[in-house]
Fold this protein.
Amino acid sequence: MCTSRGIILIDILLAMSLATLFVVIISESTMNARDLFERSKERNRLLDIFEKTDRKDIETVDVLYGNDRIETLFRVSSPEDKSEYPYAQNIFFQEVTKLPDVDTRTFAGTPLCAVDFSSNQVPMPHIVSIALPIAASLPLTDLVVRHGTAYISTDSSTSADPDVFTIDIRNKDEPRILDSLDTGPGISSLTLVRTKLYAAAASTAAQLHVVRIEKPDNLVLEDKYQIPLPTATTTPPFASSIFYADGRVYLGTEKWNGEEFTIIDVSDDGALIERGGFETGSKVSDIYVKGSGVFVATAGEKQVLLLDVSDIDTPILRSFLSPSGWQRQEGKKLAYFEEELVLGRTSGGFNIAHDHELFAWASSSVHTNDLVSPRATRDSAGGIYGIAVDRDLIYVVTHELGKELQIFDSPFSTSTVRTFSLPVSPRTLTCDENKLYVLGQTAPVIYEISF
């Protein structure tokens, strides 16, 4: 039984304990507040240094941002003397600018796409179907999307059918044809450069067609160009692929008895002048140009080539890859992002697991002209018909039923592939800003994909 004196003693001890605890809490709070104040004070000092110092005198790190910009990280640091600066820290500032000393023409012709299509680690696509007001009998071949306008090429067996359409797709429920143009033969591939479309034509009379866009609703066939024949009796080829960079068109053709890869100078608006060429010995399916390097996907044994065009008149083969299965598979699509290369090829009609369809090369391989050693490869049963890449993910479209859209963590991690169904087989994949666009192969439809 406790006495009243014992109860009083317990109360005193409890009060002293609470007082001690309160003092400790106040002391810790004061220390935390002081710590926070001192850190903020040092951060403000570093901010002042950044604002008042010439940027060139601040430590920087440059990394490629997308394919046409530079991300500069500015680092401002406290002195390492902890006795004088006990709250030393580093702060970073980010700035994104155009590549220095580069004419903007260099990157015209390529899609103007976001560096990241999705901010989610596990992206869930929102897929919207856009039914095109085009006859279902017209075989669609290529797609460019720019600011809500779709530029679509076709290759019809009927000579009077249009080969190029411009379609306003901003209203997804009621896309509207702005104009169409019959260039004569069909078009295999096209690229948009400011107010012109350069088109690879399925024609023996002229493999390059130049279409001027007076306005989105006014297309004019401005010029044509025929590749010179090695002999008067040589049968001319059809053009199969096209790329534009820095005032030049890089044109690929079907296999023939001449050079399947041709460089045409289009920098003078009044002239189309052939420069160099290269005989690949097989159909050129896709082209990507980066500086003095040209990557070429083909249907032959050398399914991706790296050509050096430092001398534009004399391309030189620097490296190539001949993967197993080349006898029945075709190098189909190329993608290039932040100095890394991706190749996709067809399955050859049936899938053999060890004959992979996806290949990726790191920047180190690209810089050392080494296509023999891919960074990663991946089997894809449906073949690859379009590729888009951002900083974390690789997006591809295939003909695999129920898995037409596939998304990989870079580079092709088996455990992280996500697959999604599209109602029709895809013809190709492109992008504009933060959206992907898939052109249907068996129906006149575009799928707009956002995240």
